[in-house]
Amino acid sequence: MAAAHTPDTLRIALAQANPVMGDVRGNLALARRLRAEAAGQGADVVMFSELFLAGYPPEDLVLKPSFQEACRAALDELAADTADGGPDVLIGLPWKDERGLYNAYAHLAGGAVAGVRYKVDLPNYGVFDEKRVFAAGPLPGPIAVRGVRVGVPVCEDIWGDEVVDCLVETGAEILLVPNGSPYWRGKAETRLNVVAARVVESGLPLVYLNQIGGQDELVFDGGSFALNADCSLAFQMRGFVDEVVTTVWRKGADGRWACEGGPKATLEEGDRADYRACVLGLRDYVNKSGFPGVVLGLSGGIDSALCAAMAVDALGPERVRCVMLPYRFTSDDSLRDADACARALGVRYDTLPIAPAVEGFEAVLAPLFEGRDRDVTEENLQSRARGMLLMSISNKFGPMVVTTGNKSEMSVGYATLYGDMNGGFNPIKDLYKTQVFRLSALRNGWKPEDALGPDGEVIPVAIIDKPPTAELRENQKDADSLPPYDVLDAILIGLVEDERRVADLVADGFDEETVRKVERLLYLAEYKRRQAAPGVKVTARNFGRDRRYPIVNRFRDPGAAR
């Protein structure tokens, strides 16, 4: 039961939780459990994140009438629960009426649906495409929660000033904002700046509740917080974990509400936050999809080693299987380093020599290839043999194949379709190679609080220190085909993240021929990326949802006038 309520006190519980897309009954059960937890903390009201009963973002799934009906039925059940005198509920769901389909937020109290508000500002940029499926709601007024006039702008509604202005004009006293705000590096500061702007303009305190968990390529990092009306930090919840926190708000003699205090967690930033996002995204993709575990090729190189470490941190060593797939170009160093990495991580480790498979393919193709020199075709046969073997292990035993290509390689097509690109999910897909090196060194000296892997060095230093190589021919090095990774990544950030002109990059000091080569490879590899496995978004502009380029594309930046 909720604590006795007084008109000048409101106990608000924030359920920073991890719903599962489409699992309406499971999300209802989760909401019930967390409401009971909030009741135990003496909450008057418990708020959940945007579209909680459905999962977020539901994309075109939300257009199915049966899905809409399931969400509405779950809401009615949850509303009936509130007849017990426990906390009111604020929760998101898709809401269909005769006017349209809305991204809605409902107030449940006294055994009924006491009020519903609709999202007004539907984002249609980057990873968002809500105008495709939802109708924009009318400007809202506040709702009465235990006698307090509460504004509930939904997520994007606070990124401009119109919705909040309307709530101020119609008498809102506190703003409670449900969000489905995905992670990318630096996002926490951006959110804080947006909230601060709305608090300054409105003179009202604002509670920002964010979702937690992975959904396909998106990771929601939590980090819920609130600002008092004077812009002081009322509380800060943790990032990348689910929790229920009840905060006590009191109305002062001046009529303003303020938080009595709450947790003041320190959010992880930069490489640590990126690492945690990759781990959470992989964990939820595997668990929510129902895979028993994962399998990946462990080559002795840094990309597969980092993916193995992330997989163990996400799932535990008993659910990770690593396979060395050597051929005649595989060095003794790679064999030794892969074995050392597997031992450090405590995973099952198998060795499957691929020579019979590669030579079998070559024998089949020999009549067609007669008179032709060996080239990249034979190199790719090795990669595709490895991909086939890993997929066969997946088929036979059930684990999902983790693919291990980094963003630098995906950008310029330095990867083999149906070979090393095989797999169900890629935790490092949005990490450039220079970030892969940094995160590998980072993990050897630090472990996230929720990681299931061992402490200490899990990626042998020899793997981090040696020059990267695909080992598909004798003495091959990545530098034979690509600029140094520090140069390549800087150019790619300019071309991909910032959409800069070739001339701009040349003016910054990059060699024009190199920039043009990278641009050409970037465009040519679009068809490969379109077929790549999904992977965690950690940058402001990932391949896929953020950057949607045509596959057939003859445009090349003309650069400076000549």
Automatic annotation (TrEMBL):
Pfam families associated with the record: CN_hydrolase, NAD_synthase
Active site per database record: 50 (proton acceptor), 50 (proton acceptor), 119 (for glutaminase activity), 155 (nucleophile)
GO molecular function: NAD+ synthase (glutamine-hydrolyzing) activity
TM ranges: none
Residues involved in L-glutamine binding: 125, 181, 187
NCBIfam families hit by this protein: nadE, PRK13981.1
The protein's name: Glutamine-dependent NAD(+) synthetase
